[in-house]
TrEMBL record:
Organism domain of life: Bacteria
Subunit structure: Homodimer.
EC number: 2.5.1.-
Function: Catalyzes the condensation of isopentenyl diphosphate (IPP) with allylic pyrophosphates generating different type of terpenoids.
UniProt-recorded Gene Ontology molecular function terms: ditrans,polycis-undecaprenyl-diphosphate synthase [(2E,6E)-farnesyl-diphosphate specific] activity; magnesium ion binding
Enzyme class: transferase
Cofactor(s) this protein requires: Mg(2+)
Membrane is among the record's keywords: no
Record protein name field: Isoprenyl transferase
Positions of Mg(2+) binding: 11, 185
Keywords tagged on the record: Magnesium, Metal-binding, Transferase
Family (UniProt): Belongs to the UPP synthase family.
Residue positions of the active site: 11, 59 (proton acceptor)
């Protein structure tokens, strides 16, 4: 079975640029180009939703120039996107200023009725913070079940997370969709994100299809 919802930790953009003697910001532009290819293949394969980790709460500790470079790539994407995907964000988009938030709101509104793949962008996002916020909201409402709780996460309404892909060689979640990833299959590759492509996605999907998912049973 094809995964309905794939999460991607797009790691290795900075290293990709450094290895070419380029400024790290070039790595983010190349990362977006790779993402476009991967999304095209995901749509062809019948994946419903792709959530990408584009800016974690830990990334706020990076040098100002690098933060600006990532925000610029995302903002340019939001303002120019005119394809058939439905684009949404999760995370504290207001931490990046009014202009950025306006671009996000615009792409979300423009694409809300689109029939294609759902691209969900985690930006200013951290899985622990998301769980804590969901717990506060759920507690306000009183007694709750796992389902009630999950409805308070910022992924509410998305299909269950089936597969998490991480490029760049590290083998950890780094705060990405911690609650949702409980029973997701994990796929790690040493490829740096700008080198990841449609064929690499197919390889990850083939591995997913070969696994027996027992959900603890
Ligand atoms: C981690 O790799 C990746 C990021 C901090 C950001 C990735 C963002 C993009 C590719 C642009 C996203 C586009 C949209 C539309 C949201 P790293 O660069 O920290 O890798 P390193 O480990 O090599 O330093």
């Amino acid at each position: 079975m094809i995964p309905r919802h794939i999460g991607i930790i797009m790691d290795g953009n900075g290293r990709w640029a450094e290895r070419r003697g380029l400024p790290r910001k070039e790595g983010y532009a190349a990362g977006l180009a790779a993402l476009r290819k991967v999304l095209g293949r995901a749509a062809e394969r019948g994946v419903e939703t792709v959530t990408v980790y584009a800016f974690s709460t830990e990334n706020f500790a990076r040098p100002e120039e690098e933060i600006r470079a990532i925000v610029k790539v995302a903002d340019a994407f939001d303002r120019s996107y005119d394809g058939d995907m439905r684009v949404s964000y999760m995370g504290d988009i207001y931490a990046f200023g009014d202009e950025f938030a306006e671009g996000v709101e615009s792409v979300e509104a423009r694409t809300a009725g689109n029939p294609g793949l759902r691209l969900n962008i985690a930006f200013g996002y951290g899985g622990r913070a998301d769980i804590v916020n969901a717990a506060k909201r759920a507690a306000d409402k009183g007694d709750f079940t796992e389902e009630d709780f999950a409805a308070n996460l910022s992924s509410a309404g998305l299909p269950p997370l089936d597969l998490v892909i991480r490029s760049g060689g590290e083998k950890r979640l780094s705060g990405f969709m911690l609650y949702e990833a409980a029973y997701a299959e994990l796929w790690f590759t040493d490829a740096l994100w700008p080198d990841f492509d449609g064929d690499a996605l197919d390889e990850a999907i083939a591995s997913f299809e070969g696994r027996e998912r027992k959900f603890g049973a």
